[in-house]
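STRUCTURE:
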């Protein structure tokens, strides 16, 4: 039986669930979980006042229900288990996550998968800015794992990304800025300055309307790519929606950004 938490109220100030992860709760009884505290603004409040808590944490399966748009840091630093969210989630969903899986049926806020290291985050709605990104002052963003967003995301996704996979239905400006390595696939429209400052890695721009490419990228070959077929097959197995015509498509490659080492690549549907 999973641990079920139903959010009882919506606060005007942020609620932080730092340290709330399946692997951290698995040995606790319900009464102990209810006594755990969470910050509501600058006050510490027992979880039992915020949530109706039922079930058992032993199997490391957690279900969260309610309007959690103002509840932040869900699944931060988790290393195992599963979290399922029925409804929207706040900022920093799965931040610094190392393993396990998070499934969210609604939208998520900024910094989803911030500096993620491993595991899977699957968001069926949209997400905010800086998903899979480095926190300000950090040298590296996402260094592993998979982030899937069915809807659109905001600006600076994959900022300073080092490893891993991000898939999104559309994105804002500066996708993959300062990207070191890894893969970002955007299945809808993308904003300006995609790949600015990228060193290595791959950004697939797969929407119907090709975006404007920075002049510091040089045009390369156009061909079918086995690696794209393999990645798309993996997304298919994970239940991520995309046009099946992409499986047989050819891709136009651009190399850059030449203001850095210039070994990254942008892939556009030919």
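SEQUENCE:
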């Amino acid at each position: 039986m999973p641990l079920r938490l139903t959010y009882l109220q919506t606060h005007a100030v942020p609620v932080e669930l730092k340290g709330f992860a399946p692997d951290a709760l698995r040995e606790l009884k319900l009464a102990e979980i209810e006594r755990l505290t969470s910050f509501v603004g600058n006050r510490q409040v027992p979880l039992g006042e915020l949530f109706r808590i039922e079930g058992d944490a032993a199997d490391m399966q957690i279900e969260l229900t309610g309007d959690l748009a103002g509840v932040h840091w869900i699944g931060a630093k988790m290393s195992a288990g599963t979290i399922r969210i029925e409804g929207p989630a706040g900022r920093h969903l799965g931040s610094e996550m190392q393993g396990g899986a998070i499934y969210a049926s609604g939208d998520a806020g900024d910094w989803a998968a911030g500096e993620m290291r491993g595991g899977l985050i699957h968001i069926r709605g949209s997400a905010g800015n800086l998903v899979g990104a480095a926190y300000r002052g950090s040298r590296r963003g996402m260094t592993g794992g998979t982030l899937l967003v069915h809807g659109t995301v905001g600006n600076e996704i994959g900022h300073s990304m080092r490893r891993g996979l991000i898939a999104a239905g559309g994105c804002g400006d500066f996708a993959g800025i300062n990207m070191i390595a890894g893969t970002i696939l955007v299945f809808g429209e993308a904003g300006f300055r995609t790949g600015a400052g990228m060193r290595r890695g791959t950004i697939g721009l797969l929407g119907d309307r090709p975006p404007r490419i920075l002049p510091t990228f040089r045009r390369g070959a156009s061909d079918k790519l086995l690696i794209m077929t393999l990645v798309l097959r993996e997304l298919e197995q994970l239940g991520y929606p995309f046009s099946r015509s992409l499986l047989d498509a050819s891709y136009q490659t651009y190399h850059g950004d030449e203001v850095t080492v210039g070994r990254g690549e942008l892939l556009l549907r030919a």
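REMARK: The chain has a mean pLDDT of 95.
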